Amino acid sequence: MFKTLMIILLSSVLVNNYVLSRFLGICPFLGVSKKLNQATGMGIAVTAVMLLATAVTWPIQYFLLDKVGLGYMQTIVFILVIASLVQMLELLLKRFIPALHRGLGVYLPLITTNCAVLGVAINNITDGYNFLESMVSSLGVGLGFLLAMVLFSGLRSRIEESSIPKPFRGLASTLIAASFISLAFMGFAGIVDKIFA
After folding, report:
1. pTM of the model as a whole
2. Which of 11, 67, 102, 129 allows an S-S link to 15, with CB 3.0 to 4.6 Å?
3. Of 139, 156, 147, 140, nearest in space to 30 by CA
């Protein structure tokens, strides 16, 4: 069981990184990665929402929707749950960590529409994970999101300090840098299988 959980965790962080290999959650990845503290805060907030969303949506799917034959309502119910969780998180951050709340700005409510959060909740069900495996998968996806945000933030700070030809300034250099990080993460393909073979 431990081996299975470690495979799920490592593959979620490195091999199947939602941002860099599945291209889910690109809006906050590009929008909030200019400063390290904002990128870290967003990564932690998204990880928390993913864990909470999985902890709530998994039982709803198996003990409510599937039992009464409403499995087709999955997406709508999951979106409502995620929106409620994000509102709760926003209120908590505003009350207890106002600097992070101000730093995240408009991107905090965007977690509601972050397809990575909805994607992990639905993929955990689709992949047939039990509750513990779903939580580990969500933790791995969240940590992978955080890792991608922090790495990209560091790269963007280096880009801003560099002399870049005029046609490549702004969004062009940002997208090129994102593609390089994505290519670098492709190097992790197969590593999890070799570690636990």
Report:
1. 0.86
2. 11
3. 156
Length of the chain: 197
Name the DSSP class of 97.
-
Q: What angle do CA 1, 45, 156 make, to 5 degrees?
A: 105
SS3 7: helix
Reported in sequence order, the residue ranges of the chain that DSSP labels E, i.e. its strands, are none
Is residue 159 within 8 A of residue 169, CB to CB? The reply is no
Please say whether the beta carbons of 65 and 141 come within 8 A: no
d(Cα 104, Cα 102) in Å, to the nearest integer? Answer: 6
Q: Which residues contact 2 (CB under 8 A, 6 or more apart)?
A: none
* Residue 143, token pair as written in the block: 């940590």
Token readout for 196 is 């636990």
Rounded CA gap, 65 and 71, in Å? 5
User: Any residues with CB less than 8 A from the CB of 34 and at least 6 apart, and which?
Assistant: 153, 156, 157
Distance of alpha carbon 197 from alpha carbon 47, whole angstroms: 29
**Amino acid in the structure at residue 77:** V
For 108-154, how does the pLDDT look when each residue is reduced to its tens digit (9 = 90+)? 777 777 788 889 999 999 999 999 999 999 999 999 999 998 988 88
